[in-house]
Structure formats: structure tokens, C-alpha cells
Design a protein that fits this description.
It is built from twelve helices and eleven strands. The protein has helices at 8-15, 19-27, 34-47, 53-59, 76-89, 107-115, 130-139, 161-174, 190-206, 221-231, 246-258, 292-308, and strands at residues 65-70, 95-100, 121-124, 142-145, 155-158, 180-183, 240-243, 268-270, 287-289, 317-320, 323-325. It has a six-stranded parallel β-sheet with strand order 2-1-3-4-5-10, sandwiched between helices. It has a three-stranded parallel β-sheet with strand order 6-7-8. Helix 1 (8-15) packs across helix 3 (34-47). The longest helix is centred in the middle third of the chain and has 17 residues, at 190-206. The relative contact order is 0.11.
């Protein structure tokens, strides 16, 4: 049976070569004669030696770790982001460290401390101040996810404004709903700011006066329930509620059904993200599908490229496409297989 605890020095002794030769063979770098390579590979195969990736990283002046800076970990959105990030980091043998900034007064300081322990950072837009992002980028490779990076800091984000305008236009023109409200806080997230802008643009294009301001709530389901208490009163109920994400929309849906309202007959409700549960609730939720896992996977790829091949690191934005998914919550017939028709 092989012994994974063998050290590189022991493999070198067994193969009758230098430690440097074993390192070159196991890493696939440098010039090694065929005879030396054969002896090293035979010793590795016979004794089951596995190079210590952390040891290699430390020898190269690295930590063998990547960092994620999130506002928090609740809900399916952040779960998808983590899974997408790990899908690239783990095969590269990099561990993933997570910092949650929600309700922390020392978020910037903690992010700077994390940068001393990782080889690169992915930061959700709006969680760290721009001056701190620029300082972080001087320390390690940094990619902003779901927002634009300051200066030359690259970013990966989904398209927000045009898709939200398409959804809003669908409600205004196809369903003739001219009394719409927007639920979400544009000040709290770059994504929500762009979605609010798309909502307003669709109203202007249709010649319909939009609401003066959004219903500014956070992005969790409980916040949607609270928004429903405010919005769904018998004397002032809007025709449609356009939510900045699916979690909020599901909270509004819970609030509506709890008041005995029919969706979409009494009020239309839409979301954004296309979380897995959006197609499973009744009625299924009209929403905008964004590639959440791919956002994080692309960010991890950019960071790993920056760590391993600095000369190949791209600058600027990578914007991934989104897709309108029409379901019953806006009055459209659902696809019996997928729960949505798409566009």
C-alpha cells in the first residue's frame, strides 16, 4: 500500500536523485532526463507519494487559499455563489475562506486582514468601500462580483437593467398593468440600482408615470412579507409588485396569499434570479434568470489566472446574459415541464 505521508526527500532518496529533480517531475516543470524522470515516477507509483499542495504554495510564496467577501450567507443566492466559486477553486487545490460583512463595523479592516492570508479575493459589489477595494488590489488579485470594480479592478456581473426593463415592459404593455411598484433598495446594492433603473426606463418608454420611489427593503424573504403588509391594503393595493430578487418576491407572495388574495388575478408578483424554488411555488414565479454559479466560477477563474499567469489577467467588466422567464405569477401560462416559457 502506498504511503501518502512520504516526504519529497524520501522519494528523492528512493529514486537516487535530488530533491529538486523530484520537484521538477511532480510539478511538470524544468528539464529532467528521461532516465531521471522514469526513476522518480517509478518511486512515486510504488510508494504512493502525493505532493503537498500547501507546501508547494508556501514554497512559491503563496497561501493556497482564495477569499470570498459577502454581506451574509442567508438564502439560495449566496449558496449558489459559493458552489460556483468552489467549482473552480477546489479542482485547483485552493481552499476557500469566507468573510461575512453584515452588521460589522470593521468590514474594511477585516477584508484587509484576510488579504494577508489568501492569494486572491472575490468581493460582492457594495460590501467594501472603494478606497479599500483599491488597497486590496495592491495586495492581491481582486475581482468584484455583481458590481463594477473601481479603477482597473476587474468585475463579473449579470446584465440587470435591460432584462428588468423587458420584464416591466411585459407587465405594462402585454398585461396592461399601469400601477406597478418596485420592491428593493437601490442604495444597498449595485445590482438593485441597475434593476430600478431598468424599471424606470420601461415606464418612460411606455409613456407611463412610474412611482416616485421604490419600497426600500432588504433582500430576504422576511423583508418581502413586511413589504406585503405595507402594500397589499384593500384601499391602495397596486396591480403588480416587481421585486428586486426572488427571495423578496416569495415573501410578498406569502403575504398576499395570507391575506386571501389571488395571484395573479388580484395582484401580480415578479422576482429576479430564478432561484430553484421560483418554479416550485404555486403560482410559479415570473422572474429573470441569472447565471449565479457562473458569476462566481468566472471570478474564481480570473483570480486563479492572476495568481498563476499575471500577464494574462483581463481588465474591465465581464457581463453575463440574463433571461426573462414567464410563469403564472404574472398571468402567463406555465410550461408543464420547466415551469416557465422563457423568451
Amino acid at each position: 500500500m502506498g504511503n501518502s505521508r512520504l516526504t519529497v526527500r524520501e522519494i528523492a532518496r528512493l529514486a537516487g536523485v535530488s530533491v529538486a529533480t523530484v520537484s521538477r517531475v511532480s510539478n511538470g516543470t524544468g528539464q529532467v532526463s528521461e532516465e531521471m524522470r522514469r526513476r522518480v515516477l517509478e518511486a512515486i507509483e510504488k510508494h504512493g507519494y502525493r505532493p503537498d499542495h500547501l507546501g508547494r504554495a508556501l514554497a512559491a510564496g503563496r497561501h493556497g487559499a482564495l477569499g470570498l467577501v459577502f454581506p451574509g450567507l442567508s438564502g439560495p443566492y449566496f449558496t449558489e455563489l459559493i458552489q460556483g466559486f468552489e467549482s473552480e477553486a477546489v479542482p485547483s487545490r485552493a481552499s476557500v475562506h469566507i468573510l461575512c460583512t453584515h452588521l460589522r463595523s470593521d468590514s474594511d479592516a477585516q477584508a484587509l486582514e484576510m488579504a494577508r492570508r489568501v492569494d486572491g479575493l472575490a468581493v460582492i459589489g457594495g460590501t467594501i468601500s472603494e478606497p479599500t477595494l483599491l488597497r486590496l488590489a495592491e495586495m492581491v488579485p481582486v475581482v468584484v462580483v455583481a458590481g463594477e470594480g473601481p479603477g482597473a479592478v476587474p468585475s463579473v456581473r449579470a446584465e440587470n437593467a435591460a432584462s428588468m426593463a423587458e420584464l416591466t415592459r411585459h407587465l405594462l404593455l402585454d398585461h396592461q398593468l399601469t400601477d406597478l411598484v418596485f420592491v428593493g433598495n437601490p442604495e444597498g446594492s449595485p445590482d438593485v440600482s441597475e434593476r430600478w433603473a431598468g424599471f424606470l426606463a420601461a415606464h418612460r418608454a411606455a409613456g407611463v408615470t412610474p412611482p416616485a420611489s421604490p419600497v426600500a427593503v432588504s433582500m430576504q424573504q422576511a423583508d418581502g412579507v413586511l413589504a406585503a403588509e405595507q402594500l397589499l391594503r384593500p384601499d391602495s393595493r397596486p396591480a403588480g409588485v416587481v421585486c428586486a430578487n426572488d427571495e423578496t418576491a416569495l415573501g410578498v407572495l406569502v403575504g398576499a396569499l395570507g391575506r386571501g388574495l389571488r395571484v395573479p388575478q388580484d395582484v401580480v408578483i415578479t422576482g429576479f434570479d430564478d432561484a430553484p424554488i421560483a418554479a416550485l411555488v404555486n403560482p410559479a414565479l415570473t422572474t429573470i434568470r441569472q447565471p449565479v454559479r457562473e458569476l462566481a466560477a468566472e471570478a474564481a477563474r480570473l483570480i486563479l489566472t492572476a495568481v498563476n499567469e499575471p500577464e494574462r489577467v483581463p481588465c474591465g467588466d465581464i457581463v453575463l446574459p440574463t433571461e426573462l422567464v414567464l410563469r403564472r405569477s404574472c398571468g402567463c401560462p406555465a410550461n408543464p415541464v420547466t415551469g416557465g416559457t422563457g423568451t
